[in-house]
Amino acid sequence: MNKRPSALTIRKARTSDIDALIAIEDQVFPTDRISRRSLKRLISRKTASFLVAEDQGERLGYALVLYRTGTALARLYSIAVADHGQGKGIGHRLLEAAEAYAFDHGCIFLRLEVRADNAPAVALYQHGGYRQFGIYADYYADHASALRFEKRLAGTTPPRGKQPPYYRQSTDFTCGPACMIMAMRWFKKRPPQGSKYDRRFELKLWREATTIFMTSGVGGCEPFGMSVALLKYGVQADIWSSRKGLFFLEGLRNKERRDVMNVVQEDFRAQAMDGGIPLHPKGLDRKTLHLLLEQGGLAIVLINGYEMFRDDEPHWVLVHASDDHHVYIHDPWVEDEDLETADAASGLPIPWAAFQRMIRVGRDRRMAAIALKGGNSR
Ligand SMILES: CC(C)(COP(=O)(O)OP(=O)(O)OC[C@H]1O[C@@H](n2cnc3c(N)ncnc32)[C@H](O)[C@@H]1OP(=O)(O)O)[C@@H](O)C(=O)NCCC(=O)NCCS
């Protein structure tokens, strides 16, 4: 790689950069250049971060991130480095800065499209930890296809305090039991005689707390069943649920399955009542959650998987810390064995605004959480 620029700074673009930006556009993009008028508009747009890389007064590249109000998804609309600046790490620096701006803007994903034959750009994204999640065939005027990439952002916020040991769910239906295992370990509960915190115990917990069916596939766990199972292992739970009816019945048309779900969930509710598990008929609010976490507690919270992985299925995550800006979660789901590690799914800071959208689940946007208290000090 060539010599790196000595004093590279990345800053927000100004209208005085427009001539230099046009020169870069003309140099690197044969078609589809951003016009002077659009550049001017984009530089002052509130829902965009327009970043410029400058070395000793010379503008060497830019990155443009666009936001959509009300979502945690940002889009890298364009990135470019002047010909003579390429291959010196400037693209990489711009990409990192774009990620930091997107995260500070409350986004947890950065997405982009890139021509499949643009080897330098594809290399830049792959080395930057982006994952290809789709392809648009025949996307460009010359029929070339576009690869769709995304990265889950974690910002540079260091993890807060001591974190519960992470446990990765080993099936796509055991997010609840994986959170329960993390909580049991945090509260220093031993697994029952002869068991270990492993896949066998994860599936045992699932059998103890499952609803049997979900809208599709095998059953998930709802808060009553999970609280009853946790109580059995010595973990005290409070249920916070703004849902009056039963869980996961939306879209489940099969009458027999609905009947079975009714029986199972009614039974869990009766057991929860017998066990004296408190039920708060509303969502777990920010203040209560913050206080719970400050006192060494944890919350297992149902989220709408759409914000995390573009999948509408309900999903349980473990919340273990919060501050003024973020909640910190362990997401038991690790996206892909090759591309994401447990590190990327543990201690994830989620901006409050995104979190508050995530916890509204289903067509009626209800909230459900299990608040766990324990004497574990941090
Ligand atoms: C894509 C682009 C922004 C990369 O900027 P850059 O400053 O040259 O990239 P960097 O020097 O930071 O290199 C980043 C990575 O890409 C790789 N890379 C850079 N140039 C490359 C090339 N010509 N071929 C293959 N890989 C290349 C580097 O190996 C580096 O990986 P590493 O950090 O693991 O070593 C730049 O090539 C460019 O402006 N291209 C034209 C515009 C464009 O295509 N933009 C993207 C539209 S989606």
Automatic annotation (TrEMBL):
User: Is Transferase set as a keyword in this record?
Assistant: yes
Domain annotation N-acetyltransferase: ranges: 8-154
Q: What is the protein's given name?
A: GNAT family N-acetyltransferase/peptidase C39 family protein
Identify the keywords attached in UniProt to this record, alphabetized. Acyltransferase, Transferase
Q: Which residues cross the membrane?
A: none
SUPFAM superfamilies, from UniProt?
Acyl-CoA N-acyltransferases (Nat)
Q: Does the keyword Lipoprotein apply?
A: no
The species this protein belongs to is Govanella unica
GO function term, MF aspect, one: acyltransferase activity, transferring groups other than amino-acyl groups
Q: Which Pfam families match?
A: Acetyltransf_1, DUF3335
Cited InterPro entries: Acyl_CoA_acyltransferase (IPR016181), Bact_Acetyltransf (IPR050832), DUF3335 (IPR021770), GNAT_dom (IPR000182)
**What PANTHER family is this protein classified in?**
AMINOALKYLPHOSPHONATE N-ACETYLTRANSFERASE-RELATED, AMINOALKYLPHOSPHONATE N-ACETYLTRANSFERASE-RELATED-RELATED
